Amino acid sequence: MSFAWPWQYSFPPFFTLQPNGETRQKQLSAWCALALAYSRRHRLPAMTVREAQDSPLFANRRLQRILCGARAPACRPLPSLPSAVGERLLNPHPGKLPLESIQVVLEELRKNGNLEWLDKNKTSFLIMWRRPEEWGKLIYQWVSKNGLTNSVFTLYELASGDDTENEEFHGLDETMLLRALQALQQEHKAEIITLDDGRGVKFF
Amino acid sequence: MDRFAWTSGLLELGETLVVQQRGVRLCDGEEKVKFDSGVLLLSTHRLIWRDQKNHECCIAIPLSQIVFIEEQAAGIGKSAKIVVHLHPASSNKEPGPFQSSKYSYIKLSFKEHGQIEFYRRLSEEMTQRRWENMPAGQTIQVNKDPRAGRIRAVGIVGIERKLEEKRKETDKNISEAKEMVELSKSIANKIKEKQGDITEDETIRFKSYLLSMGIANPVTRETYGSGTHYHMQLAKQLAGILQTPLEERGGIMSLTEVYCLVNRARGLELLSPEDLVNACKMLESLKLPLRLRIFDSGVMVIELQSHNEEEMVASALETVSEKGSLTADEFAKLVGMSVLLAKERLLLAEKMGHLCRDDSVEGLRFYPNLFLTQS
């Protein structure tokens, strides 16, 4: 099933950061919702900002073709630029969210707990369409429902074991799993331990 | 008040008039004196006061006598004042109206306003101290050097040659200045002789001579915000001139359009931009049928009171919705407005949340604000 883009994705103003405060809030909410839905659907791994700029998430190729075609017969082709600096100097293209605006969206995601920067320079990030605390809650619900408190699991067992096949968190990648367990650890509901061949977790 | 000296009131050579103000009373410290109604003139060198009823009564004080000045705000029934603190009188001072005074300051009381401008100008003169550079009223002392040879020489001879050249230049300036001095003397005499008052026409000519010499118009009475009689009259005049043009242009015009229109109509007595703005600022308080409006971008317009820009925004939204999206240019053409005002209207609509923007290399385009209307 192909991804269902929201109506905003075909609305040209969506790709210009709105100056009106109220309008901007609505716009950013829509961007965050889209980023999370897209990230979930495509199981987005960690990304760099550079990759984000080229991603269909932030650039609607179809819209660009429509807008360029309709207004200017000789629309210049969208170049793949050699450097992020060069991009900044050019005016924004229609149907493409400019770099600075992408950073505003990413910051909004981070404030909501849905994004984590993976390095100090903020070049790569991970979108967490579900927050670690929310994953932790789901895992703990399964643990207590099945009376498995005080048991120890390996990370593999949790994420890929037969017992969890029907659970939402089944197949969760290790990075997210760890973050979820860390959240539970904060709440004193679990403890991450080191086992012979890797890491595991004990639930309380 | 003992620092003042009697004077003819004529400006000396090298002395320039800076500003003057009617309706000024002088006070010796805290005490009133008989100089209760006069014209106060500020020149580059002196402060001169002339009695309005008796033009021969004229006193002056050199600016170098002033230590510092301060403002005293107006109160109920009291005019605004400038307090002028003075050095003690010098021993070789010319005779004046008072031999002694127990105060070391005087007060200038502005019964007909103008104190703000006067204070500003006086402060400027106190800072610039132009009287030090241009000793007024002195005759030039030069050594007449018999050796008129063109021998290039250094040392004393060279210096003397330079002095000779300066003297020649000064002679030339003096003869040119002589004309001006003659002219102002004759006008001043006319005033004195009281052969009828000086006519309106001659006053205007005199003022224009001063203007051409680079002296600021001596009768500007700028008091920011509170308006003056001049600006009030001007505002009323503008209301008359602009009523019809505004109606023809949909009730709103940019201030630059107004400026061009008004000055074209006036022909000769052109308005300065400052005077226009100051007059327009008074339109609303004078309850005239037009008003000045300043948009967020800084653009200034004149609108008819009956004009409601917010309502126009609603119709702008309709127009944009019909066409899907519009740039300021396209909107201006459709509606028949100037691009400047069209843009302001679209920006206002955006500010009110009716429109949103698409900003790219293709230009700035406005759309109906679906972010708010569509869930």
UniProtKB/TrEMBL annotation, chain B:
<comment type="similarity">
    <text>Belongs to the VPS36 family.</text>
</comment>
<keyword id="KW-0967">Endosome</keyword>
<dbReference type="Pfam" id="PF11605">
    <property type="entry name" value="Vps36_ESCRT-II"/>
</dbReference>
<dbReference type="InterPro" id="IPR036390">
    <property type="entry name" value="WH_DNA-bd_sf"/>
</dbReference>
<keyword id="KW-0813">Transport</keyword>
<keyword id="KW-0653">Protein transport</keyword>
<dbReference type="InterPro" id="IPR040608">
    <property type="entry name" value="Snf8/Vps36"/>
</dbReference>
<keyword id="KW-0175">Coiled coil</keyword>
<dbReference type="InterPro" id="IPR021648">
    <property type="entry name" value="GLUE_dom"/>
</dbReference>
<dbReference type="Pfam" id="PF04157">
    <property type="entry name" value="EAP30"/>
</dbReference>
<dbReference type="GO" id="GO:0032266">
    <property type="term" value="F:phosphatidylinositol-3-phosphate binding"/>
</dbReference>
<dbReference type="InterPro" id="IPR037855">
    <property type="entry name" value="Vps36"/>
</dbReference>
<feature type="domain" description="GLUE N-terminal">
    <location>
        <begin position="1"/>
        <end position="138"/>
    </location>
</feature>
<protein>
    <recommendedName>
        <fullName>Vacuolar protein-sorting-associated protein 36</fullName>
    </recommendedName>
</protein>
<comment type="subunit">
    <text>Component of the endosomal sorting complex required for transport II (ESCRT-II).</text>
</comment>
<dbReference type="GO" id="GO:0031902">
    <property type="term" value="C:late endosome membrane"/>
</dbReference>
<keyword id="KW-0963">Cytoplasm</keyword>
<dbReference type="InterPro" id="IPR036388">
    <property type="entry name" value="WH-like_DNA-bd_sf"/>
</dbReference>
<dbReference type="GO" id="GO:0043130">
    <property type="term" value="F:ubiquitin binding"/>
</dbReference>
<dbReference type="GO" id="GO:0000814">
    <property type="term" value="C:ESCRT II complex"/>
</dbReference>
<comment type="function">
    <text>Component of the ESCRT-II complex (endosomal sorting complex required for transport II), which is required for multivesicular body (MVB) formation and sorting of endosomal cargo proteins into MVBs.</text>
</comment>
<dbReference type="InterPro" id="IPR011993">
    <property type="entry name" value="PH-like_dom_sf"/>
</dbReference>
<dbReference type="GO" id="GO:0043328">
    <property type="term" value="P:protein transport to vacuole involved in ubiquitin-dependent protein catabolic process via the multivesicular body sorting pathway"/>
</dbReference>
